[in-house]
């Protein structure tokens, strides 16, 4: 039964074992005892034997299989073989496995969101807390410290969610590097699974460059490509990977309404593209109108508004559907939180640049207790995974999900296989302010791009000097131990 009274159902899906009225402009699928309902613009691929369902879209790192071929192949795999093949996918997707018991997997940054909750005897899994609330009256968590945080000026100004938590009672998010067992709604870590092996930049480049080429060739066959560039490392690395397709690509930078046009993030991309005779545009973004903000907030729970502002119908339709490439997710391989020692939850709060707050301290202390032993056991840096499973999940991943309200937004780095390879170099080569690995890859793919500086601001120059004289790590440690970024009481 189609229920036309429900609010807008767009860029959303719901998986539940409760009988629900299907929203208008949606499609419905049966997965075991569960019903999957997706908004019409979301693609769904089901294996021929009905074992694997893929929501969204994906490209393979090592071959050119399309989604239907991918799900058919995944349906023949189990255990480690299945996990390894999911690692090899680069995309914006949720995978549901119906082999014996339902399990759910996401892309490397959890960009197609999975929120889950149980009420009485029914289970609800969907793309946003508001989606779940359309079909059941979930209530806010009554924890005083959590409520204080979610109502704080700090949170309302940036709307970055906290790990796998939500503001609803017993409702959680599936974060990066985890899968969800549906029968008991338990999240379990699936990466890392093996001891980290260290490789040289030569070895890493020989692995990564063919992968980037393969993914981009697949994308170009299906889409009209727009590529974002700024003055930073991430977008420059992305741009370098596009060299062989550069004459078919439109490069762009967003000009936000509250920013002057003479800042380096606008000047440098324009110069690069002008010098290299590339198709480039500075896209001016307008403020969202109150009516549009109201509509967005009716669909998504405490949404970040910037992605809706940026990606709202900014490019004309083309014969091949548009896809916007961004450098998101590559930050995982940049020692983004630096190499400092975190002793407890309070140190983590400060390392991720959040204000002191009891709820945040408790959350990150629990995260350390649950995760640091396994991550260290496999030879990885704990702060890389804190950044990956907090900032990448709840910033890059969340923004990517919101952008899909209007357009396909995609990162060629959004694959656990790619990130595993990038993390295999010596951490000293992955410094966020002087990312030697990125420079090496750029030199191999488009060396002319190294003729231009990276983030040449006064602040960045000071940090580079402090690193050169080897005092920056001391400064960061002192900052974590003695300096707070404000306080949420």
Describe this structure in words.
With 489 residues, this protein is an alpha/beta fold. It has a domain at 2-138: Aminohydrolase, N-terminal nucleophile (Ntn) domain (Glutamine Phosphoribosylpyrophosphate, subunit 1, domain 1, 4-Layer Sandwich). The protein contains 17 helices and 19 strands. It has helices at residues 67-74, 79-87, 129-135, 144-150, 153-158, 201-222, 233-241, 264-275, 290-299, 306-310, 345-351, 358-377, 382-403, 416-422, 436-445, 458-468, 472-482, and strands at residues 2-3, 13-16, 22-23, 26-31, 34-39, 44-46, 52-60, 89-99, 101-106, 115-119, 122-126, 171-173, 178-181, 186-189, 224-228, 250-255, 280-284, 322-325, 408-410. It has a six-stranded antiparallel β-sheet with strand order 4-5-2-11-10-12, covered by helices on one side. Strands 6-7-8-9-13-14 form a six-stranded antiparallel β-sheet. The protein is globular, with a radius of gyration of 22 Å. The termini are far apart.
Radius of gyration: 22 Å
Number of helical elements: 17
At CATH level 2, the architecture of the domain at 2-138 is: 4-Layer Sandwich
Give the helix/strand class: alpha/beta
Low-confidence stretches: 1-5
Percentage of residues in DSSP E strands: 15-25%
Biggest sheet overview: 6 strands, antiparallel
Number of strands: 19
Rounded to the nearest angstrom, the distance between the terminal CA atoms is: 47 Å
The CATH topology of the domain at 2-138, please?
Glutamine Phosphoribosylpyrophosphate, subunit 1, domain 1
- How is the largest sheet built, in terms of strand order? 4-5-2-11-10-12
The helix fraction, in percent, is 25-40%
Global mean pLDDT: 93
**Shape designation:** globular
CATH class of the domain at 2-138: Alpha Beta
């Amino acid at each position: 039964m189609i229920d036309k009274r429900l609010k807008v159902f767009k860029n959303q899906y719901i998986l539940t074992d409760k009988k629900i009225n299907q929203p208008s402009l949606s499609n419905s699928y049966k997965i075991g005892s569960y019903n999957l309902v997706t908004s019409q613009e979301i693609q769904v691929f089901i294996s021929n034997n009905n074992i694997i369902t893929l929501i969204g879209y994906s490209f393979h790192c090592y071959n050119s299989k399309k989604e239907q071929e991918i799900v058919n192949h995944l349906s023949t795999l189990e255990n480690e073989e299945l996990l390894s093949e999911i690692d090899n996918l680069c995309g914006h997707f949720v995978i549901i496995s119906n082999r014996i018991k339902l399990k759910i997997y996401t892309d490397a940054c959890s960009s197609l969101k999975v929120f889950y909750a149980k009420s009485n005897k029914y289970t609800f899994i969907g793309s946003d807390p508001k989606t779940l609330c359309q079909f059941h009256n979930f209530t806010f968590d009554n924890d005083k410290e959590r409520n204080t945080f979610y109502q704080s000026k700090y949170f309302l100004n940036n709307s970055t969610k906290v790990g796998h938590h939500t503001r609803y009672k017993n409702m959680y998010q599936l974060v990066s590097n985890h899968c969800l067992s549906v029968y008991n709604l338990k999240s379990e870590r699936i990466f890392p699974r093996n001891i980290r092996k260290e490789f040289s930049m030569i070895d890493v480049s020989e692995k990564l460059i063919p992968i980037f080429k393969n993914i981009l060739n697949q994308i170009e066959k299906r889409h009209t490509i727009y590529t974002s560039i700024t003055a930073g490392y991430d977008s420059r690395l992305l741009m370098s990977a596009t060299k062989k397709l550069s004459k078919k690509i439109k490069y762009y930078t967003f000009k936000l309404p509250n920013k002057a046009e003479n800042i380096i993030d606008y000047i440098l991309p324009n110069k690069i593209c002008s010098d290299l005779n590339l198709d480039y545009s500075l896209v001016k973004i307008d403020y969202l109108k109150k009516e549009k903000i109201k509509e967005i907030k009716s669909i998504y729970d405490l949404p970040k508004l910037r992605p809706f502002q940026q990606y709202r119908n900014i490019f004309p339709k083309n014969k091949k559907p548009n896809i916007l490439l961004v450098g998101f997710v590559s930050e995982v391989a940049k020692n983004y939180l630096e190499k400092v020692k975190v002793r407890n939850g309070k140190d983590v709060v400060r390392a991720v640049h959040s204000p002191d707050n009891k709820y945040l301290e408790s959350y990150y202390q629990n995260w350390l207790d649950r995760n640091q032993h396994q991550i260290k056991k496999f030879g990885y840096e704990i702060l890389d995974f804190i950044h990956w499973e907090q900032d990448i999940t709840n910033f890059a991943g969340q923004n990517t999900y919101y952008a899909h309200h209007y357009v396909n937004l995609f990162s060629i780095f959004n694959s656990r296989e790619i990130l595993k390879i990038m993390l295999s170099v010596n951490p000293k080569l992955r410094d966020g302010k002087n990312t030697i690995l990125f420079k090496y890859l750029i030199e191999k793919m488009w060396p002319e791009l190294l003729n231009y500086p990276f983030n040449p601001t006064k602040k960045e120059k000071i940090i580079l000097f402090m690193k050169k004289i080897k005092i920056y790590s001391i400064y960061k440690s002192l900052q974590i131990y003695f300096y707070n970024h404000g306080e949420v009481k």
